[in-house]
Amino acid sequence: MEKATDVSAGDKQAGKNAPRGPKRDVERTSREEVLRVSVPVGSRFKGYKSCFVRDVVLAAELVHYRRECWITPDGRTVTASLPQGILGGCGPNLRRLSLMLHAQDR
Q1: Do the beta carbons of residue 72 and residue 78 sit within 8 Å?
Q2: Contact predicate 92/85, CB 8 Å
Q3: What share of the chain is helix, strand, coil (3-state, %, to 5)?
Q4: Which regions of the chain does DSSP assign to beta strands (E)?
Q5: Which of 47, 55, 63, 83 has the most CB atoms at less than 10 Å from its CB?
Q6: Residue pLDDT tens, the chain, 106 long
Q7: Do the Cβ atoms of 92 and 99 come closer than 8 Å?
Q8: How far is CA 52 from CA 36, 75, 80, 81, in A?
Q9: CB 82 within 8 A of CB 90
């Protein structure tokens, strides 16, 4: 029983996990920028050094919908409808985000 609980040299230390391995999302880059540097005359170009940066972009967008209003000859008002998914001044993405955050809170 005591031999089974002893830590031998071949065992891994408790609390240390194996490394995760390489990230495989570098094929899905959304933007590529070339950073240039000023060099002295006579320098030779040797190539590039890659650096992948992960970031999250959240951007607010306020859209002004100008809905046409027409009055027909018989006196009725005809107004253009809002696009599909617009409800109560919130777009579909904002509504989706708020529902996701509300569900995640539980």
Answers
A1: yes
A2: yes
A3: 20, 10, 75
A4: 69-71, 77-79
A5: 83
A6: 566 666 665 555 666 777 776 667 777 788 888 889 998 888 999 999 888 877 777 888 899 999 999 999 988 999 999 999 888 888 988 889 889 988 986 6
A7: no
A8: 16, 62, 46, 44
A9: no
Q: What is the pLDDT of residue 47?
A: 93
Please say whether the dihedral angle defined by the alpha carbons of residues 94, 95, 99 and 100, taken in this order, is positive or negative: negative
CB 65 within 8 A of CB 82: yes
88, with CB counted inside 10 A (0-12, 13-18, 19+), is exposed
- Quick one: how far is CA 14 from the chain centroid? 35
pTM score, whole prediction: 0.48
Instruction: Give CA–CA dist 22/91, Å, rounded.
Output: 37
Contact 83, 90 (CB under 8 A): no
Q: State the pLDDT at residue 31.
A: 84
Which residue, among 39, 31, 37, 38, has the nearest Cα to 49 in the 3D structure? Answer: 37
53 pairs with which residues across the strands? Answer: none
